[in-house]
Amino acid sequence: MFPQLLLLSNLTHPTGLVINGAAQTEQIGWSAKFVGDLNGDGVADIAIGAPMANPSGLLKAGKVYVIFGQQGSGRETPLNLANFTGNMGFVLSGLAAGDGLGWSVSGAGDLNADGVDDLLIGAPFAGAGQKADSGQAYVIFGQRGRTRGPDSLNLSTLNGRTGFIINGQHPGDRLGYSVSTAGDINADGVSDILVGAPMSRSSHGRKSGQSYFIFGQRSGFDAKFDWTRLNAATGVALIGGAAGDQSGFCVAQAGDLNGDGVSDAIIGAPFSSTKGMNSVEVMWCLENGTAWAIASIFLS
Question: Does residue 16 fall inside a structural domain?
């Protein structure tokens, strides 16, 4: 039974858990999500972003802390991330100064259909291939039976079997500003993901924004997602309706809003001026992939 008023400053075991950041200015908790069961032990896990962390002296490269759930009474509070070990989970660090890893975090569902949940994280200020602020998103595949993390997992070693990288296509796109599981958006029985790039340009103008469904695959993934292969079988680009919309600023799974048995999605465009008001787009995703006859959809 919960009290009528619960002061978080007084949170004690076993009511809950306080998680303290490892260093000043990390901004731990900028993002935080339940991410499914990444180690297949039957207990839920969480991911917490600290995009202003300075791992190995890399200013604002960012970190993500993955904390494994525990059976029984759970972890003692407070949990101090300065003392983080592989018994608690694992840490992901940004690869370069300014990446902002952990700006967004989400569970990815079971993207590779191996029976274990996966993790999705964004680094929207990363500059892949000298493309400043193009942004990156990372998928890390869960591993059944992992009772101890590796303390730290190097994102540069993702090889398609352990996970893969999604690079922003153009400078300034800020891909990974928002990320989300999408459920099974194309109704093929495998989880899909949704990644926002709100500052990207299109034929509709600068900063119209784009979001991308990337479909899960039983056949596996390459180490880097290949945009040249974006088609109705691998994913869909959702393109903002007008210059400045910043469509993809936030993205989320929307459940099954129209009751057709297929997952839907919601995409925020906070600077759209349709009829003088801001906009949110809701995608009705049709059974058997009917909506995916083309690889790009304009949200105007």
Answer: no
Q: How many domains does the chain have?
A: 1
- Is 6 buried (19+), middle (13-18) or exposed (0-12) by CB count in 10 A? exposed
Q: By three-state DSSP, how is residue 67 classified?
A: strand
Rounded Cα distance between 81 and 46, Å, is 14
- Dihedral sign from CA coordinates of 268, 270, 272, 274: positive
Give CA–CA dist 138/78, Å, rounded. 29
The strand pairing partners of 163, in sequence order, are 140
pLDDT for 210-244, tens place per residue?
999 999 999 999 999 999 888 888 999 988 888 98
User: CA 290, CA 225: separation in Å to the nearest integer?
Assistant: 24
Structure-block tokens of residue 59: 């200013």
Q: Is residue 266 part of a domain?
A: yes
Residue 11 lies in a domain: no
Cβ-based neighbours of 223, under 8 Å, separated by 6 or more: 158, 159, 160, 164, 165
DSSP 25: T
Supply the range of the domain harboring residue 107.
32-298
Instruction: Output the pLDDT for position 299.
Output: 61
Q: Is residue 12 part of a domain?
A: no
DSSP alpha helix (H) spans, 33-119 = none
Q: Is the pLDDT of residue 28 over 90?
A: yes
In angstroms, the CA 13 to CA 246 distance is 42
Q: Which H or E run contains 165?
A: strand 163-167
CATH number of 43's domain: 2.130.10.130
